[in-house]
Specification:
globular, six-stranded mixed sheet, Rossmann fold
Length: 292
């Protein structure tokens, strides 16, 4: 299983741009050796997967859909974008429309997981695979997400911090935007889920394009080959970034990307996003409803 991930995230070269500049090639740093990358990721991946596994004697039900949300915590994420992602999810999970969508299928339940990502194996599983089939389940997940710190800003303020334009980007940042790795990790989490399902959806959140040479295509194509749907949440109103998501990130049945920036209520917006994640690729006879 680990070898599949390493194949889906090939050796790539780093290049960086301002999140609001046009996409164009930049001078590349030397590529990381494949063996180093594999060893670098192996241990945290084992921890990652152990957190996703239920107890040996647990009863594992099937679900109508398994949804994993990948939260961007790269260095370009400012406090407001961090707030949009975390608070949006926390509020959406206890919204009546989300619960209605989560219990609208024949099994009346979904599988739900959340992790943070940036680059070089820096990820954390915030919510291991959890069944949501009641308001109580959703509230527990919401409370768990509300209690965590997404980004430690002790030494670096993230996207809000003034940057030295003369500094070496590689030395100044250690959490880059490796979206290919995020897709590969989401794929691994979906593939290893103990919850049987016919629909597996990943929700990739990001405020910029992939920082590494090679792009997202390899990981995306590997995910689509496994039957997964990739949806996107674009942080900020950036037409070029939205187009990048449509052309290089999303894919699969009912795939879509939405953008969020100045939403008056992050919870309402994230609710609409999660409801669409759940229903966009539902069977034709699944219950449909308007979001109130």
């Amino acid at each position: 299983m680990l070898s599949h991930l390493f194949q889906s995230v090939p050796t790539r070269r780093f290049w960086r741009r301002s999140e609001h500049q046009a996409v164009k090639p930049k001078p590349a740093m030397p590529a990381k050796p494949c063996r180093w990358r594999a060893l670098h990721l192996a241990l945290p991946l084992m921890v990652f997967l152990c957190g996703a596994s239920p107890a040996a004697n647990a009863v594992v039900p099937g679900t109508d859909a398994n949804v994993v949300t990948a939260i961007d915590v790269s260095d370009s994420i400012g406090r407001y974008e961090e707030w949009l992602q975390q608070t949006g999810l926390v509020r959406a999970l206890v919204h009546p429309d989300f619960l209605r969508a989560a219990t609208a299928g024949p099994r009346r339940r979904i599988g739900f997981a959340v992790f943070t990502w940036s680059s070089d194996g820096k990820f954390a599983l915030l919510v291991p695979w959890t069944v949501i089939d009641s308001a109580e389940d959703a509230a527990r997940v919401s409370q768990a997400l509300a209690s965590v710190t997404l980004i430690d800003r002790t030494h670096y303020g993230g996207g809000d911090m003034e940057q030295d334009g003369n500094a070496d980007p590689a030395a100044m940042h250690d959490r880059l935007t490796d979206m290919s790795e995020a897709i590969a990790l989401a794929s691994l989490l979906l593939a290893s889920s103990p919850l049987a399902t016919e629909r597996a959806v990943m929700n990739i959140c990001a405020n910029g394009t992939d920082n590494f040479e090679g792009g997202t295509e390899s990981s995306r194509d590997a995910a689509l080959a496994q039957g997964f749907t990739i949806n996107g949440l674009v942080l900020g109103q950036d037409a070029e970034l939205a187009q990048y998501f449509r052309s290089s990130v999303i894919g699969g049945p009912g795939a879509f990307a939405m953008d969020i920036s100045d939403a008056k209520d992050a919870g309402e917006f994230m609710t609409r996003k999660l409801v669409r994640d759940l229903l966009a690729s539902s069977p034709a006879d699944a219950p449909r409803f308007r979001i109130e």
